[in-house]
Design a protein that fits this description.
Blueprint: H1 3-6, E1 18-21, H2 28-35, E2 40-43, H3 47-55, H4 59-65, E3 72-76, H5 85-93, E4 99-104, H6 108-112, E5 123-126, H7 132-135, H8 141-147, H9 151-154, H10 159-176, H11 184-194, E6 200-201, H12 204-211, H13 215-227, E7 231-236, E8 250-253, H14 256-262, H15 271-293, E9 298-304, E10 310-317, E11 320-326, H16 338-346, E12 351-356, E13 362-364, E14 367-371, H17 372-378
Parallel strand pairs: 1-4, 1-5, 2-3, 3-4, 7-9, 11-12, 12-14
Antiparallel strand pairs: 6-8, 7-8, 9-10, 10-11, 13-14
Helix pairs in contact: 8-14, 10-14, 11-12, 12-13, 14-15
Length: 386
């Protein structure tokens, strides 16, 4: 049996209508089908269905009115026909207890179309790649660092080939087919260049220079990559700052397997740099999933002073303040704790954690140190981070 069909997702589904955004391959369609086997299912990836509803959006009224009152209607890849959203709005206003699940791999076309995303009448949720705790005993840190945790690739026999095909499909169907860029080859080169900024402070001027494009083009294409949910940025934590802080955000790809597939390897590479960026990205995508699936409101940041003292991740929310440092080494050195100790001085209420590639859980200088695989498997949206 396909592994992703037996893995229970921790995504907490709202009781009301909602948008379910997420990159392709995160399992949105599978989740909707599993949770709502009796739903009216409208798949806008099917050319005939898409053409019919583009030509006559009001047909959705007829389809839904024939569906049972109080039933669920799943519209897959809603961004393909944004003209349907005013019809969905009308149907929600009818108060017949229909629940709409509107999946999408991009909100860019919806934004460009001037659609108001139902004026707040549907929640906005995100589905992320698998979490380690979701796959349980199937989780392998070594495998996750190489091929990521996309359900699409998780149980494949040739994950590298699957990821390469996945990126080509994204470029062809999400970028070129939607007319987001004029020529796909320079954009593909831009994404490759962007992979060198994974887990790094963003410098758009350097990226533009390396990709041989204008800065304004780099900014526009970065916005496209964000809207397509391929990359995300996190900002510096500045609440009640006691020091001069950096202002530049950090950038990550949404899944470490996609980062690995885009990042070219050469004899000039230092393997520890690439594997360290992959490890940091794997932690980042787990923290994002925990934040998205946890009922309380939290935000992901990092912390970096003007003098260069840094903490990889800061999670701040209604229930706490957590600071996390990621080290791609099997041993902990005193200098590894510098950032966390400085953060503790400024925020004594913070819970601090260093995760590393070793095997022992211990306390050093009042800082919890834990094997990274143990930490990842223990991240549960129903519990505190640590």
């Amino acid at each position: 049996m396909n592994k992703q069909h037996v893995i229970k997702r921790l995504f907490p589904e709202p009781a009301v209508s909602y948008f379910l955004f997420g990159p392709r391959g995160t399992g949105k369609s599978t989740l909707a089908a599993q949770r709502h086997p009796d739903a009216l299912y409208i798949n806008l990836l099917l050319p005939q269905t898409r053409r019919e509803l583009q030509a006559r959006p009001e047909k959705l009224l007829e389809l839904v009115h024939a569906h049972a009152q109080g039933g669920v209607i799943v519209i897959d890849e809603i961004q393909k026909v944004p003209e349907l959203l005013p019809i969905v709005h009308i149907l929600i206003e009818e108060h017949r207890d229909w629940k709409f699940v509107l999946t999408g791999s991009s909100a860019r076309k919806l934004k460009r179309s001037g659609v108001d995303l139902l004026g707040g009448r549907a929640l906005k949720k995100t589905l992320h790649p698998f979490m380690a705790t979701e796959v349980g005993e199937l989780f392998s840190l070594a495998a996750a660092l190489e091929q990521g945790l996309l359900p699409l690739c998780f149980d494949g026999q040739q994950p590298a080939e699957t990821l390469s095909a996945y990126i080509s499909l994204y470029l062809d169907e999400e970028v070129q087919a939607e007319g987001l860029v004029r020529h796909i080859e320079p954009f593909a080169r831009f994404l490759e260049t962007l992979s060198f900024s994974h887990a790094c402070t963003l410098n758009i001027s350097n990226i533009a220079r390396e990709a041989a494009i204008k800065r304004s083009t780099a900014e526009s294409w970065l916005s496209i990559a964000e809207d397509l949910l391929i990359v995300f940025q996190i900002n510096v934590f500045t609440r009640r700052a006691k020091r001069l802080l950096s202002t530049q955000p950090k950038l990550y790809f949404f899944d470490v397997g996609v980062f690995r597939a885009l990042r070219p390897n050469s004899i000039l590479d230092v393997s520890s740099e690439t594997s360290g960026a992959a490890l940091e990205g794997l932690v980042a995508q787990h923290l994002r999933a925990w934040i998205a699936y946890t009922p309380s409101k939290n935000t992901l940041y990092f912390w970096k002073t003007k003098s260069g003292v840094e903490v990889d991740f800061v999670v701040f929310g209604e229930n706490g303040l957590w600071a996390i440092e990621v080290k791609n080494s099997q041993h902990i050195h005193s200098g590894d704790l510098t950032g966390l100790k400085n953060f503790q001085q400024d925020y004594p209420m913070a819970k601090t954690l260093l995760v590393y590639r070793g095997e022992d859980t211990l306390i050093k200088n009042n800082i919890l140190c834990m094997p990274v695989d143990k930490f990842l498997v223990g991240i549960d949206p129903g519990k505190s981070l640590f």
